[in-house]
Specification:
229 residues, alpha/beta, 7-stranded mixed sheet, 11 strands, 32% helix
């Protein structure tokens, strides 16, 4: 079964306070989106890459992909105003084929080859896979009045990363069920499967603390250190 990397690159980077969207910030001689594309393009088990972005960004992303000779980038898809709409665009784009979709944040440029390998291996046994790392801080759950209601055991908690990976038919059915709910407001793709397809066991593979998401200026500095050390 083919493995398709879906790179979501529609963010405007409003929290970055920069003149350009964060995916076009240059670090180490390449834009952030190029670092992300390159990670999947060079992995032997990735068969195809689709990039999802706002329509006005697609010409520049296409130019970046062509200039870098990333031959696995085959589709450039128009995303929606919400993250889940961009994921849904990719799910629908591959409606004629049963394949594995590895949905990844375009702003996570430091995803390792090892993480991608873990995902593709897990997809041979499972239809839904999450990448996550153990939490290092104590997590508290609050009551409505702002007091602590519960402190879950830290050993059972994980912090989600991407890729989030699915058999296409599974995530498609989860979205179909979810979109019938007027209160549908997902935080990410794995939550759609978790909530609307509880019969599916989601396998968790270990991520990497260096698989950072670029959100703030300090993340740019950290990423620069990671690729130059």
């Amino acid at each position: 079964m083919r493995n398709v990397a879906v790179i979501l690159a529609g963010g405007k980077g409003s929290r970055m306070a920069t003149d350009v969207p964060k995916q076009f910030i240059v670090v180490g001689g390449k834009t952030i989106i190029e670092h992300t594309i390159r990670a999947f393009d060079r992995h032997a088990e990735i068969d195809e890459i689709a990039v999802v972005a706002a329509e006005e960004y697609l010409p520049r992303i296409r130019e970046i992909a062509e200039r870098g000779e990333y031959n696995k980038v085959r589709r450039f898809l128009v995303g929606g105003g919400e993250r889940y709409l961009s994921s849904l665009a990719a799910v629908r784009a591959y409606c004629g084929e049963e394949c594995n979709l590895l949905i990844h944040d375009g702003a996570r440029p430091n995803v390792s080859q090892d993480i991608i390998t873990k995902c593709t291996a897990a997809l041979r046994m499972s239809v839904a896979v999450e990448v996550a790392v153990p939490v290092t801080d104590t997590i508290v759950e609050l009551s409505p009045d702002g007091t602590i209601a519960h402190i879950p055991p830290r050993r059972m908690l994980r912090r989600a990363q991407t890729p989030q990976c699915f058999r296409r038919s599974v995530i498609a059915l989860a979205f179909k069920r979810a979109l019938a709910n007027l209160d549908f407001n997902p935080t990410d793709d794995i939550s759609v499967v978790s909530e609307y397809m509880p019969e599916v066991n989601i396998r968790v593979v270990e991520g990497d603390r260096n698989n950072i998401k670029i959100t703030y200026q300090s993340d740019i500095q950290l990423f620069e250190r990671l690729i130059t050390d």
